[in-house]
Amino acid sequence: MDVAPKPCRPPVMRVAGTPALHALHVTPFKRGVLGALPALVRFARSWTQRRATVDVVRDQPLIWVVDGLCEQQHVQQLKEILDQQDVSFVRKTDAYVDDMFDERRELQEDAQMLVSMMSSGALQMAPSKYQSDPLRSLLWLAMQRPELLQTSAWDIGQLSTTRRAWCAQWNPEDLARSGFRKSAFRCKVPEEMLSHLAPLVVDVLGAPVQGLPGTDSARGAVAPSWALRDTTVVRYQQDESQVPHIDTSDVTMLLYLSDDGGHTCFPNLGCSIPPREGRILVFCSTSPSNRRFGGFAGSAYGEPLDATMHYGGLMEKCNGELAGRRIWRQGQ
């Protein structure tokens, strides 16, 4: 789960196979103030009583791991909820960062452009040196013989060009060392699952979370100091991973639902966290600031921490899922 002064990360849920992780993004309500983080200190004693252990991986930026807080029985309940979801509910996303870089997406776009240009006879008019590259052929035809292109070719070409230009903003070295090729299955987290996660989230943050079912009454009359941004369920299969990125939230919280799957890697810090059933990984994605990270109304206040760039490593042997939610702290 991601915890930050406003945006939160989506949780990942299990759709089939063995779930690997839940992610939650949160943001504190007060601008640039990670006031809820002392909850780690306040509740560390109660965690210990429940045989939970807290390991601080880094203090700058803050990254910590909690084992034993989410017990096996709770993990099993979360898995059962995911298994019971209607097929119509668990539809894969197509506009997430990972989806933009998925090699299968480019192959699909190329196939659609080829079919459109071939059906209109336009492809044979393109120079032979471009015919093995559908997008280059389409761009040449758009400039030299636009009357030969169907509306569908224009639409596909525009979408493909825009997507590839957007992807060019990423550092190719970061992409190369992550080994990313294919995106994992990703969908929304069901409401029932959010309700089951609520007590755990309050334990970690020490305060209710606006938008998270069941936390308004948590901890008595404590006013909400965190806000939920969105929720997501991710399932990793072989050769699927994540694009290196920095979360647009103050804090990220990940809950692993199994021992299987790739590590959560922080390449700029030279460290990675292996999955373990019930393990919770929490890290800060911003430093205090009055500026919104991400530039949009729902994003967190703060400066992005480049050191927290991370990605889910390759699933090489087993299936696994990741559930995540984005949460942030409300601005004053």
Biggest sheet statistics? 10 strands, mixed
Q: Name the structural class.
A: alpha+beta
CATH topology of the largest domain: Jelly Rolls
Instruction: Tell me the name of the CATH homologous superfamily of the largest domain.
Output: q2cbj1_9rhob like domain
Topology, number of strands: 17
Percentage of residues in helical conformation: 25-40%
Between the first and last Cα atoms, what is the distance in angstroms? 23 Å
Give the overall pLDDT as a whole number: 76
Q: What pattern of helices and strands is seen along the backbone?
A: EEHEEHHHHHHEEHEEEEEEEEEEE
| CATH class annotation of the largest domain | Mainly Beta
Output the number of helix runs.
8
Tell me the strand percentage band. Answer: 15-25%
**Shape by Cα distribution:** elongated
Which stretches of 5+ consecutive residues score pLDDT under 50? 1-22, 29-39
CATH architecture label name of the largest domain: Sandwich
Quick gist of this model?
This protein is an alpha+beta fold.
Please provide a written account of the structure:
With 332 residues, this protein is α+β, with helices and mostly antiparallel strands. The chain folds into two domains: 2-94 and 181-328, q2cbj1_9rhob like domain (Jelly Rolls, Sandwich); 103-175, no CATH class. The chain has eight helices and 17 strands. The chain has helices at 39-49, 72-83, 97-101, 103-120, 134-144, 151-167, 172-178, 191-205; strands spanning 2-3, 21-28, 53-59, 62-67, 182-183, 185-187, 209-210, 226-236, 240-241, 251-256, 264-266, 271-273, 280-284, 286-292, 301-304, 311-312, 320-328. The strands form four sheets. Strands 1, 2, 3, 4, 6, 7, 8, 10, 13 and 17 form a ten-stranded mixed β-sheet that branches. It has a three-stranded antiparallel β-sheet with strand order 12-11-16, with no helix packed on it. Strand 11 (264-266) and strand 12 form a beta hairpin. Helix 2 runs antiparallel to helix 8 (191-205). The chain is elongated. The two termini are 23 Å apart. The model is unreliable at 1-22 and 29-39 (pLDDT under 50). Residues 61-330 form the Prolyl 4-hydroxylase alpha subunit domain. InterPro entries: Pro_4_hyd_alph. It comes from Durusdinium trenchii. Keywords: Dioxygenase, Oxidoreductase. Its cofactor is L-ascorbate.
